[in-house]
Amino acid sequence: MRRSVRSQVLVGLVVSLGVALTPALAASCSRTVTLRFANWAAAEAATAKEVNAAIHTFEQQNPCIKIKSVALPYNEMVNQLTVMAVGGNTPDVMEMSSGWPQVLAAQGALANLKAYAPASLLKQNFPAMLQDGTYNGQLVALPLSLTPHGFWYNKALMAKAGLNPNKPPTTIAALDHDMAVIKSKLPGVYPMGQMSDKALYTMVELWPWLQAYCPTPPMANNHLGWTKACTVKAFNWFQFLAKSGYIPIGNDIKANRQLLATNKMVFEIDGPYLRGIISSINPAYTSNAAFAKTFGVEKIPVGPSGVSRTAIDIHLIGMSKTTPHPHAAWKFIQFMVSSPADVRDFLIPEGGIPPLKSSQAAFKSLLNQPYQQAWVKEIIPEARPVPYNAAWDDAANYMIDALQSVLNGSNVKQTLGLLEDQLKRLYPSYQP
Amino acid sequence: MMRERAFLIGTIFPALAVIGFVVLYPLVRSVSFSLTNYNLIFGTHSFDGLQQFSSLFSDPTFYTALLNTLLLSIGPMLAAFVLGFAQALVLNQAIRARSFFRGLALLPWVIPQVVVAYLFRFMFNQSVGVVNVVLKGLGLIAHSLPWLALPHSAPWVVGLIYAWNEVPFFMLMLLAGLQSLSGDVLEAALVDGATPVKQFFYIIVPGLRRIITISTVLIVIWNFNNFTLIWPTTHGGPVNATTTFAVWVYVQAFENFNIGYAAAIGVIWLIFLLVLTFFYLRAVSGSEQ
């Protein structure tokens, strides 16, 4: 009798254990795949927590896939990825900034995502943003976070200068007028910031202005276009800004952000993440109310080209062409660009705008700040790609030299003529 | 005899192997790269003869970089030498708190070069730099100037940074030399009525000739190779005004991934360095004799 009770208890225990373990056993994998995900988000204190949380959520949802985050500093990342690609050691998935997909795709390091991405997903993207991840007709990267540049302005300083803080300049003529007023009324304050240090990012800040002057900016459609009348006009304007003392010369982006955050600069073009950067520099702007009271953002002022355009400078995500686990890698990419958990926990807190129109609609309540609304409604639809290509880094060095020469007073036409000659050597097939 | 020879070869071989691996192999590889169109981005890597050198000599940046390299190697060295010598002469005297001042004078030498570069970058910043504040306060300039963004001032500022960083080296070397000079000779000269200027030019300088040669050639070589002081301050700009061979090789190799071209620059750079090294070795061997 006692024996029978014991056996019954034992059977009961085994059954209970079996029931308890069933979901775990169902979720267990015959083989776990590990993907290396190279990204700069994990290398930055401000975003490491968010990206790691997103990775954790993905791993929970996909127990057969483990993500090994490879944190690389932003400034070094494209170089590191290039070296990794040459060494045949490309990470399975990688976060990229605009321009990088073209450099890496030229080495044959990136997979064509058209083979994986369903039409329904592509349809939710902005066509111009998809173009930013395209190389020779292949979709080598998908937009991850939309961060094109907008025209930021400091309302408090505008009011102090006697300008209407609710009417930021919407044309270059109005901008010139406002800068003259600021210069005369607010000594020690720079009317505007324009990067001109020898960093590739300088070109990202320069491009919206070239788009404001030229309907088709230089380097587009296999044309150099540096000696065109509209390009010359744009550079004449840069020289005018420098001569008039409207912009500090030689500043990098960090120096300009510092000046803007400490009320020593009125206008600056920058991405939506500037909101977080300003409050990290100046804690007085931590609250949304305080920030919105002092800072506003608009689309880029319209120039002679007649339209407001901004350069696409976004974050993208791509897959290695040689990854042994393309399906797992695609699953992760899809999660990063479209999963509600990732949009909520990583993309929006990171300071960007989610890439899919459906995500922007679904998370309207988290994108309700005035600056975010400006991006969703005005800036993103006007963004157009910079004509990046494999030789862009080399070319950009010459372009920055030309900009620095012009800011230092050199003859604009001659300088641009020299630039055109230099670039002709890099792009022999391009037309003038 | 044979055994002794085998032993000698056996003991020298590991060192030779290491030198071969870390010096000779990269050297030969660099020269071989310079004869190719090796480019990491475009994936080209085939023999190109002397094409890279031909492109190099027709590139205006080459001559700018060469001139900048020479000027930034020699100019700051001369300034640092004069100041370092003056410091050494002062600190060789029996002044109060001499040890303290000797330690203090070494400070620029012990600060890491990257830190020095950033310190100067902030000091010369147009918006918040102390240099502009002081010069404006003294009425020497009307508006703050972007010193490191102007092609005519940036090389001077970089030269100043080099010189500031190198003064302690000259001070140290020359002070050691001064202390090894025979006091009797100086005393005899004093008794014979030699003025301090005559003592300096006829006794001190000739006595320190070897040290002066070695330390100046060493500093020129170091300046020739310097990257750490330029890159954080100007990145070689504005408009290549501070681009030296070191900066240019970095840009070509690690930003443009144009390895063949970078290697060609490196080969020309190496030839200049070999000439300098020849003078250095001659000075050292002369000093040993």
Give an account of the 3D structure:
The complex is a heterodimer of chains A (432) and B (289). Chain A has two domains: 33-147 and 312-384, Periplasmic binding protein-like II (D-Maltodextrin-Binding Protein, domain 2); 150-311 and 391-426, D-Maltodextrin-Binding Protein, domain 2 (3-Layer(aba) Sandwich), CATH 3.40.190. Chain A has 19 helices and 13 strands. Chain A has helices at residues 2-27, 45-61, 74-86, 100-106, 119-123, 127-132, 155-160, 172-185, 201-213, 229-243, 253-261, 274-281, 288-294, 326-338, 340-350, 357-362, 370-382, 392-407, 412-426; strands at 33-39, 65-71, 93-97, 134-135, 138-139, 142-145, 150-154, 190-193, 265-270, 295-298, 310-311, 315-319, 383-384. In chain A, a hairpin with a 2-residue loop joins β4 (134-135) and β5. Chain B is mainly alpha-helical. Chain B has a single domain, classed as MetI-like (MetI-like fold, Orthogonal Bundle), CATH 1.10.3720. Chain B has helices spanning 2-34, 51-57, 60-91, 98-105, 107-110, 113-123, 130-137, 154-180, 183-191, 196-207, 209-225, 231-234, 245-255, 259-288. The two termini of chain B are 30 Å apart. At the A-B interface, α3 and α18 of A face α13 of B.
Highlighted features:
heterodimer; A: 432 residues; alpha/beta; D-Maltodextrin-Binding Protein, domain 2; four-stranded mixed sheet; 51% helix; B: mainly alpha; MetI-like fold; 14 helices; flat
- Name the chain pair whose interface involves the most residues: A-B, 32 and 26 residues
Principal-axes shape call of chain A = globular
CATH superfamily (homologous) name of chain B: MetI-like
Show unreliable segments of chain B. Answer: none
Instruction: Write the H/E string of chain B, N to C.
Output: HHHHHHHHHHHHHH
Whole-number radius of gyration of chain B? 24 Å
